[in-house]
Amino acid sequence: MMGQAGLQLNFSGSSAVVVILVAVVACSLSWVAMRRSGFSSAMVRLEVLRLSMIGLVLLLLLKPEWNSEFQPETQPRIAVYYDQSPSMGTLDVLSDGKVETTAISRQQSIQPWLDPQTWRPMRSRFDVLVEGLGGSIGADGSEETETKLAGGLTNLSRPLSVAVDQSDGVAGVVLISDGDWNDGPSPIESASKLRALGIPVFTVTAGNARKLPDLELINADVPTFGVAGKPIRIPLAIDSSLPRESVIKARLLVGETEEALKEIRIAPMGRTFDAIQWTPEDVGEFVMTIELPVQKGEKIVSNNTISLPISIRKEQLKVLIVESLPRWEYRYLRNALSRDPGVEVSCLLFHPGLDRVGGGSLDYLKVFPEELEDLSKYDVVFLGDVGVDDSQLTEQQCQLIRGLIEYQASGLVLMPGFQGRQFELMGTELESLYPVVLDESQPEGWGSRLPGHFELTQRGRESLLTKLADSKEENYSVWESLPGFQWYAPVIRAKAGAEILAVHQDMSNASGRLPLLVTRPFGAGKVLFMGTDGAWRWRKGVEDKYHYRFWGQVVRWMAYQRNMAKGESMRLFYNPDQPAIRQTISLNAHVMDTSGEPLQDGEVIASITSPSGGVETVRLASAGDRWGVFRGRFNAEEPGQHQVVLTCKESNAVLETTFFVQGDVNEPLGKPARPEVLEEISRITRGKNVDIEEMDLLMKALADLPDPEPTIRRVQLWAHPAVAGLLLLLLTAFWICRKAAGLI
Fold this sequence. Notes:
- By secondary structure, the chain is of the alpha+beta class.
- It folds into five domains: 2-71 and 712-740, no CATH class; 77-210 and 670-690, von Willebrand factor, type A domain (Rossmann fold, 3-Layer(aba) Sandwich); 215-311, Immunoglobulins (Immunoglobulin-like); 317-563, Rossmann fold, CATH 3.40.50.880; 565-661, Macroglobulin (MG2) domain (Immunoglobulin-like, Sandwich), CATH 2.60.40.
- It contains 15 helices and 40 strands.
- Strand 19 (317-323), helix 7 (328-338) and strand 20 (343-349) form a beta-alpha-beta unit.
- Helix 2 packs antiparallel against helix 15 (721-740) and helix 5 runs parallel beside helix 6 (187-196).
């Protein structure tokens, strides 16, 4: 609707003075000219035209504009955006702020703000659009699409950017959220643009800035699979925001059956680490649930439980032990692994006193496995005090062992001895597998009458390999009380990338304490270096208690990844073995052809189905070696159990398995709200921040918004083409009049 209209001049004082002076001079000269001509009609017409042109030019110097005022034909708009991300499910909103009351979710607390009746008083002046971050509710209250953001992402910058792009007619923006954003650019950038446009943002904080009294099970490290008859230890991490210490009983349920109960002392206002143990008896796929009891005063009970799948299998690991002299360490190691029902042991003894290689038992080999398919069946290889010569290993056999570790995810345990034969391996393919640097000046190692002792490093105290007792304190005491050793390998230092689990308690050099128990990943497999030959002494007074447990853990730790999923002609292992959301998973497949030999080249495809039903196809490429290894990558975008079907076109083999991706879709429940983010947005845009209960305060602030100013349409006459045409017309008329007066 058009309102007032009029002419407006835009000039400075100096330009006005110039215009007046020029006008006075022009009028004076015209008067003189007309007087000299006796005021003839021709001269009068000529001077009138001259003054008209001068007057028009002087008027243009004052920059005249024709301004027309237009009133808006539509009502101004208020855009209301509300957060519907997973974090809004947090139960931390208390009625009137009283701790004694039961907490409701942030999503429940904002429901009155989404009621169409709430905004009805505003609709007399404004059009109100209520829109969710991922869906919308129309101005009439009808529900439209409401699609939650994939992966639980919250982009607070998006609605503000939309308001910037659609700024015409927007009187204000209302943002209802807990302030927790994890996607897109900072909302402060968009808020600055709204300030420049004069559009205020009114923010409403949902949620508590402080964590309510709560006991939260934040992590239960359940393995991908377990072995029937073998105990499974599940580390737990528990966060407590309760103001007092408490003793709880954590329950472990498999299906609906309670399998274990663990008493845990919970520290107040902190994090507690403990573990619960379960020994499965049956084989199959199960859902394991860890459950914490609800404590007095606890406001959020939904985070006291974690459920994860686990596969229980019947284990049969294959181990190869290669040794020269049958020293005590070898004998007790062989006995320990032979008595383990989940381990099948093969031994190769290069005894210099024997006419031929081998022994008296069925588990002894007469020759080293020469073919790939014969060696590739072993999950772990122990190399004792052996070297390279005609009566022991060959260069080609060392190359085969390296390939087994690097490409097929087997484990290698290095156990040097006082003969120093390990130095013969330094020039072979196995040199790069060693996690330590050896002292060549002392090939026979170091012996002592007084026994030496292990001392666990910080990493060693946390490792499953060195877990000889259930609690950290008890485990540390066990390692301190273990019988000592009287020989240790000539180690200078650990190599880069290796993890030192234990060092010599007393001996050190320029590089620090001498490392004795060291691990290192190599390719797809793992390497363990044991720097003494005295572990068999751990049996003193306790028999097999610690000795058997240690070597059993070593074998299973090394074979774990290799045995994630295996079939008759295919084996699949992935890294990391407990992937998290948005983490890249490396897929490695070992594939055999129809004749039983490693497949050199072929088409291997992994079809991965996510929990939501989406299917992604990953084509595994050949590693280009003789081990039949195919590799690919997969990005985990969803938490939960994924189904994997691995197929090989050449062998028509199919392998089905699952893996579980851990994560809380980016926005775990229970995190405190972030009101400071919303306060900053409202401050920058000159809006207002209110709490969820202060609806009347926000409605008053919206009612005080000024009416939109009318739109002014400006026509710059001094630069308009029509004015230029008028000036040209006057010049033409002036020339004609001069011609008629005989002045040309």
